[in-house]
Amino acid sequence: MESKLKNEYRDRVVPAMKERFGYSNSLQVPRLEKIVLSQGIGAAVADKKLVDAAVEEMTLIAGQKAVPTKSKKDISNFKLRKGMPVGARVTLRGTKMYDFLERLLVSSLPRIRDFQGIKEGFDGRGNFTFGITEQIIFPEIEIDKVNRISGMDITLVSSAKTDMECKALLQEFGMPFKK
Predict the structure, then answer these.
(1) 144 contacts: CB under 8 Å, gap ≥ 6
(2) Taking the model in full, what pTM does it have?
(3) Per-residue pLDDT of the chain (179 residues; tens, 9 = 90+)
């Protein structure tokens, strides 16, 4: 079954983007390629269970198995050794990506206290990254079972060539940017 957001992309976003940027072909219209959720856990050096909890929470949020990330090198000041688990991440594509984006826009972002919109964080190549300070904004997370509130970074990777095209694409999806 196709996602509601994917149908909306095909039926409403593509024609709007073609008109706005003057694309001659529907395949020229930028599209979302993947969404990457990542979380670094600094305290994981002392307590390995924190990484397991983060992987579990991220799996619930994404609806797909998250993997622990490991450190790339030794840093003696932080008591960090190469290969130690220091975070978690998950990459979403296809229907799961659209389902996650829809849940993010419809139910999670509105749950943030005093929400003013998302600050722009484009990388110059048509990708957008923003941070969330608390994982408890997602309805999948039960607040009673959370032992530690942590944030995460969400990266939306698009096929857009410029930041302007990416911003227009995300605005068509309903991304609430700061005024």
Answers:
(1) none
(2) 0.84
(3) 677 888 888 999 999 999 999 999 989 999 999 999 998 887 766 677 888 888 888 898 888 999 988 877 777 767 767 877 788 899 999 889 999 898 888 888 888 888 888 888 888 888 999 888 887 788 788 777 777 788 889 999 999 998 899 999 999 988 888 87
User: How big is the CA angle at 171 (ends 178 and 127), to the nearest 5 degrees?
Assistant: 85
CA-based diameter of the chain, in Å? 56
